[in-house]
Automatic annotation (TrEMBL):
GO molecular function, one term: tRNA binding
Keywords: Cytoplasm, Methyltransferase, RNA-binding, S-adenosyl-L-methionine, Transferase, tRNA processing, tRNA-binding
Family the entry assigns: Belongs to the class I-like SAM-binding methyltransferase superfamily. TRM11 methyltransferase family.
Annotated GO CC locations: cytoplasm; tRNA (m2G10) methyltransferase complex
Location in or out of the cell: Cytoplasm
Transmembrane segments: none
Location of the tRNA (guanine(10)-N(2))-methyltransferase TRMT11 N-terminal domain: 9-180
Protein name, per record: tRNA (guanine(10)-N(2))-methyltransferase TRMT11
Length: 463
């Protein structure tokens, strides 16, 4: 009770993209900056308007320095389901909280923001005039005001059924915008070194936020590719390190991914990518190494492991091995004379995720986070398939659809227990182990045409 008295109400205006990823992002960032997310607030669904109760404006500002899922935050002065309700709510807002922003020496501007409806200029002016009862004493300045106030009207989510009157109306003092512009400024289209699986900039920042990556952290990506995830983590001030099994990718050699270029040019590598964004000082190193055989001494090195393992669709799932490791008749391997060059074996997705969880459990600091993508065949997906580990607690599990029958799920786990040797075998005793092996067939199903066939069947039944 005492806590709720000290909380202030803020309005978050969320972006209408990657809807499932928004709540875990905001929760993770609030926990990073000392604000809590009350469980009663978890009913936002798809709406772009979220009311947050948090202790201070500082927390709100810190949140906005990181979020790519929220557009803006406002100190909420009033809220109602009709103009009358809004005005009476505003009349109840303590004047002493308004006065510092409305006094005669100040300049201000009022903006009207609508969701799912466009208003005429005349309608907007009417709404501004209706607020005359507020004790504004400063001067209007449309170009460079000290304070910006907004009326935000919510006309629901259905573009085919726009109501005459808004469902909700909010009035607040604008505090800060989020980091949506990073999606453009870090766009893969303008990046120096890319590959055909380079992670989209927006999702990379979301992953870093789910991972609670912060200044001076050490972040590791065991399937680093062109380092898209390292870039996002370095932007938030973390020192970054990665490995990849592919020599050409790590050394920036081989065929280029860009259309008009045949071969990768000199200096097309992850370090140069970081340099492009002024982040080179955060580069620790990248090595050619097989994630199934980590070469680390025992210890807890990483604050976060943020990664996008291969699904075998646009890149292969391989691991190094020797022919002796393969039971005859079970696996096919590339014929290769006995030499120091490791033979490359196929790497089952289920084994890859078990290795990843064990590695994270061993090498993360307590409280450190593992964030990774899990590909799933949606008709067969159940929550039990999400890999489990006694040292890692599931924080969030969000779906991104890839096709009508496949998706990938962004899994975030937090290390909650120190790793002991026996923990690496716990999955064998777990109920998760069997359904989880279904992942081995993800690639087969993706390519088998089964998804295309089902989509065709669905289309013909709709016709
Ligand atoms: C989905 S891509 C990662 C893309 C990366 N996030 C980016 O932004 O470019 C997966 C990467 O895992 C690598 N890989 C496959 N098997 C591996 C293994 N056993 N150990 C380490 N890396 C592996 C592939 O070479 C590929 O570069």
């Amino acid at each position: 009770m005492a806590l709720s008295c000290t909380l202030n109400r803020y309005l978050l205006l969320m972006a209408q993209e990657h809807l499932e990823f928004r709540l875990p992002e905001i929760k993770s960032l609030l926990s990073l900056f000392g604000g809590q997310f009350a469980s009663s607030q978890e009913t936002y669904g798809k709406s772009p308007f979220w009311i947050l109760s948090i202790p201070s404006e500082d927390i709100a500002r810190n949140l906005m320095k990181r979020t790519v899922c929220a557009k803006s935050i406002f100190e909420l002065w009033g809220h109602g389901q009709s103009p009358e309700e809004l005005y009476s709510s505003l009349k109840n807002y303590p004047v002493e909280k308004m006065v510092p922003f409305l006094h005669s020496d100040s300049t201000y501007k009022i903006k009207i923001h609508t969701f799912n409806k466009t208003l005429t200029q005349e309608e907007k002016i009417k709404r501004i005039d209706a607020l005359e009862f507020l004790p504004f004493e400063g001067k209007v300045n449309l170009k460079k005001p000290q304070h910006v106030f907004s009326v935000l009207e919510d006309y629901g989510l259905d573009p085919n059924c726009i109501p005459e009157n808004p469902h909700n109306i909010y009035f607040g003092r604008w505090i800060a915008d989020g980091q949506r512009e990073l999606i453009e400024s870090y766009s893969v289209k303008k990046r120096h070194f890319i590959g055909n699986t380079s992670m989209d900039a927006g999702l990379s920042f979301i992953m870093a936020n789910h991972g609670k990556v912060k200044e001076n952290d050490i972040v590791f990506d065991p399937f680093v590719g062109t380092g898209g995830l390292l870039i996002a983590c370095a932007h938030f001030g973390a020192y970054v390190y990665g490995t990849d099994i592919d020599y050409n990718t790590v050394h920036g050699l081989g065929k280029a991914t860009r259309k008009n270029q045949k071969w990768r040019g000199p200096d097309e590598n992850i370090r140069a990518n970081l340099r492009q964004y002024g982040l080179e000082k955060y580069y620790l190193d990248v090595l050619v190494s097989d994630a199934s055989k980590p070469s680390w001494r025992k210890g807890t090195y990483f604050d976060a492991i943020i990664t996008d393992p291969p699904y075998g669709i646009r890149e292969s799932t391989r691991r190094t091995g020797s022919q002796k490791e393969i039971p005859k008749g079970i696996e096919k391997w590339e014929k290769c004379p006995e030499s120091h060059v490791p033979v490359s074996l196929s790497y089952h997705l289920s084994d890859m995720f078990l290795d990843l969880l064990n590695f994270a459990a061993e090498t993360l600091v307590l409280g450190g986070r593992l964030v990774y993508w899990l590909p799933v065949y949606t008709p067969e997906y159940t929550e039990e398939m999400v890999p489990w580990h006694p040292c890692l607690e599931l924080v969030s599990n969000c779906e991104q659809k890839l096709s009508s029958h496949t998706s990938r799920r962004l899994i975030t786990m937090e290390k909650v227990k120190k790793f002991e040797n026996r923990d690496q075998y716990s999955h064998l005793l777990s109920d998760h182990f069997l359904p989880y092996q279904g992942h081995n067939s993800f690639r087969e199903k993706y390519f088998s045409g089964v998804t295309k066939r089902i989509a065709k069947e669905e289309k013909s039944t709709q016709e």
